[in-house]
Amino acid sequence: MSAVVKVGDRVEMKKQHPCGGKTFVILRVGMDLKIKCEKCGREIMAPRKKIEKGIKLILE
Predict the structure, then answer these.
(1) Beta 23-28 vs 10-13: how paired, if at all?
(2) What would the mean pLDDT of 16-43 be, rounded to a whole number?
(3) Domain count within the chain
(4) Left if phi > 0, otherwise alpha if psi is -120 to 50, otherwise beta: which for 20?
(5) 19 lies in which domain range?
(6) How many CA atoms lie within 13 A of 14 on its CB side?
(7) pLDDT at res. 60
(8) Per-residue pLDDT at 1 exceeds 50
(9) CB-based burial of residue 37 (10 Å sphere; 0-12 exposed, 13-18 middle, 19+ buried)?
(10) Cα–Cα distance, 15 to 31 (Å, whole number)
(11) Domain for residue 48, yes or no?
(12) Taking residues 25-50, what's their average pLDDT?
């Protein structure tokens, strides 16, 4: 899925975070994406390709 995401978008991922949350907020866009879990507040930074592949639905 070649998703076009921007800062501030809320996304639902295919796999859930270890805390049980599935929704994340996009904090930074570039070669890497930085996302924040809405349930526990943990921030994750990973390659754009890996995160875009895991996106199930763009909420906002």
Answers:
(1) antiparallel
(2) 95
(3) 1
(4) left
(5) 10-58
(6) 8
(7) 72
(8) no
(9) buried
(10) 22
(11) yes
(12) 95
